[in-house]
Amino acid sequence: MTAYIGASVSRVDGHAKVTGAAKYAGEFNIDNVAHGYVVVSTIPKGRIKRIDTRDALRVDGVIDVLTHENRPPMAGTTQAYKDDVAPEEGSPFRPLYDDKIMFSGQPVALVLAQEWETACFAASLVRVEYEKEAHVTDLQAWRNQAIVVEKPEKPRGNAEKALAAAALRHEAEYFIPTEHHNPMELFASTVIWDGGGKLTVYDKTQGVMNVQRYLCSVFNMKSDDVRVMSPFVGGAFGAVLRPQYQMVLAVLGALALERSVRLVLTRAQMYALGYRPATIERLGLGAKAGGTLDAIMHEAISVTSQFEDFSRNDTGWADLLYKCPNTKFVHKIARLDLPTSSDMRAPGATTGVYALESAMDELAVALKLDPMELRLRCYSDRDQNGDLPYTSKQLRECYRQGAEAFGWDKRNSQPRSMRDGSELVGWGMATGVWEALQMPTAARIVLTANGHAEVSCAASDIGTGTYTIMAQVAADVLGLPLENIGVKLGDSTLPQAPVEGGSWTAASAAHAVVSTAEEIRKELLALAKAMKNSPLADAKLGDVVLADGKIVSKRDASRAVSMADVMHHGAVDRIEKEKTNSFNDNSSHARNTHSAIFAEVKVDEQLGIIRVTRIVNAVAAGRILNAKTARSQIMGGVVWGIGMALHEETVFDHRFGRIMNANIAEYHVPVNADVQDIKVIFVDEPDEIINPLGIKGVGEIGIVGVAAAIANAIYHATGKRVRDLPITLDKLQR
Ligand code: MOS
């Protein structure tokens, strides 16, 4: 059953994407569409005293200007359904809800015009008078007012006491600034007014069902009246797990005008939506002289808004990686006058593991131990938080294979000891860990007598390769060539799926296909048995597979009937099945993906310029469904890790509570020149416990630990420890 599963199949949607045939939310051309442009708040906190839209309305081609004073009705912010990814505490932001300003960049008016240019110009004529209130947007200034949030990691032993008594101690504070997702595709929604109050919404989203439920609850509509589609998504990374405000505004516009509306945010406006929260991470590690851990304390303080308490697990990852009898984990959040922070690729782990793995490197230096050797001495075969075994954990192999591919044994442990001409050479390493999640997901398969199958599911493919892996799995379990499989995704009328996130879609969607294909096989077998002189007359469901267009006995391949014959005899030209797959998620095992990252940097001694010349990322993530798309996921994560280590930072002017680099010219991300040699290794990791196919997902593990490996390499090159990301050359020279 593995002709396609695991193979390096090129993306089935690749041709459509490179030729422009794949349409994104803002690209659906429809007749008589009105264009929106958003006016945003210039203050971070206060209320709107007066909003004057008269000049804007006088512009030729302007149809209407919506504000909190004249918008169509919408439900209050404490409505029961918030959205699938909303924090438990608080009320989601609702655009144009009232006169209250909660963050700079908050939408205060929507200009609707015949042409986009007209809307854009008229927006500049909307006059807003504010009543300002004092604001706080600086995490460092507010860190002492942060409040503790409940997290699942329990303390063990007495970490304070053990830390104080430790033979060797490392205590330090690390800082990760606010970062933004910056997906290539702008946040966009095209709302088609279908008449009679029915809407079709093309939205940039990771979850069409989430958006549909949200719209139904906010606008009191029936689910049959709202269809949400996102056939293609140009990058997301968590930015559109939650329904974003442009979608709500576009719907408000459509309801007000009874007409189709398109709204595409500007790049700058996108910075007032989700972001990776700035986080202070305090680590305390206590070791015995032999290099085993006796105490771990990890405290995180991260940013959220005044209206929702968002946080993820920054602390507690040490429990999964390192044996230690005394641990304490604390997570606090600082409520600031900013939009709510959000999920961004491996949320919590990307920041928390950066700090943990930097601290482990510092401890290794203090112990005069090779940093990989320290990790091996502390290696834990159990998740100590729940005292559970893993469904599988090949992290030792990650260390071994990664180190070998990198040439780690040739490392001189002395900082500043390795050189290449005028450059200092540094080698650093770190560990990565992420969750292997899976969610109930449904799929429909329609098999036609000509040997084609169409697989459909509401899930989005956010660029990760979902179309491709679903086609591969379907081809294998239906016994058909890949070219005969069609996949439809990103449509709320299709079988239900959760938001695409958390790296759970590969396992979830693949098993939805497997479960549904079993129903198809059941029906084909019933038809085959009904045939005269059937070679499968006494076969049971478990005895047969679908292969090479046939239904065939597992024990005796000569006992087979072609699917076409079976369907012909049964006088059916199509078999349609839909099934929701659920997983047997008892809590007897921990489920995680792991990685070991090895980084080489070269640092110009005079100028402090840092280049990341080599990265090896060895990943253990169960069965790899597609070696090519999976490698792309890890590569993308590594590139982002380079950005996190060296480039990325959302810069605020706290006097105004406003972002100063809300554009991709000044918000630095790695470019081709910053990305050199990246090697991805997938360590063999059979897993018979986690799910039938042994899939764990690879969308997020690729970034975790990368920034730490680079920071550790920079220390090794220069002897200088920078604990404040990004590591820019000025910090190195300080
Ligand atoms: Mo991911 S941060 O769950 O899109």
Summarize the structure in words:
The protein is of the alpha+beta class. Strand 14 (293-304), helix 9 and strand 15 form a beta-alpha-beta unit. Helix 14 (505-529) packs across helix 15 and helix 16 crosses helix 17 (706-718). It contains 18 helices and 31 strands. The model has no long low-confidence stretch (mean pLDDT 97). 56% of the residues are buried. Helices cover 25% and strands 25% of the residues. The structure holds dioxothiomolybdenum(VI) ion (MOS).
Task: Quickly describe the structure.
This protein has 18 helices and 31 strands. By secondary structure, the chain is an alpha+beta fold.
Name every ligand kind in the structure. dioxothiomolybdenum(VI) ion
Beta-strand percentage range: 25-35%
Shape: globular
Helix proportion = 25-40%
> Which strand order spans the largest sheet, edge to edge or round the barrel?
3-5-1-12-9-10-11
SS elements, strand count: 31
What does the radius of gyration come to? 27 Å
Number of helices in the DSSP assignment: 18
Main beta-sheet annotation:
7 strands, mixed
Which runs of at least 5 residues are low in confidence (pLDDT < 50)? none
Write the layout of secondary structure elements.
Blueprint: H1 14-19, E1 34-40, E2 46-52, H2 54-58, E3 62-66, E4 100-101, E5 107-113, H3 116-123, E6 127-132, H4 139-142, E7 147-149, H5 159-165, E8 168-176, E9 188-195, E10 198-203, H6 208-219, E11 226-229, H7 245-257, E12 261-264, H8 267-270, E13 279-287, E14 293-304, H9 318-321, E15 327-335, H10 349-367, H11 371-378, E16 382-383, E17 388-389, H12 395-406, E18 418-420, E19 423-435, E20 441-448, E21 453-456, H13 466-478, E22 485-488, H14 505-529, E23 544-547, E24 550-553, E25 560-562, H15 563-569, E26 574-581, E27 592-604, E28 610-620, H16 627-646, E29 652-653, E30 658-659, E31 677-682, H17 706-718, H18 729-733
Parallel strand pairs: 1-12, 10-11, 14-15, 21-22, 28-31
Antiparallel strand pairs: 1-5, 2-4, 2-6, 3-5, 7-15, 8-13, 9-10, 9-12, 13-14, 16-17, 18-19, 19-27, 20-21, 20-26, 23-24, 24-25, 27-28, 29-30
The structure holds dioxothiomolybdenum(VI) ion (MOS).
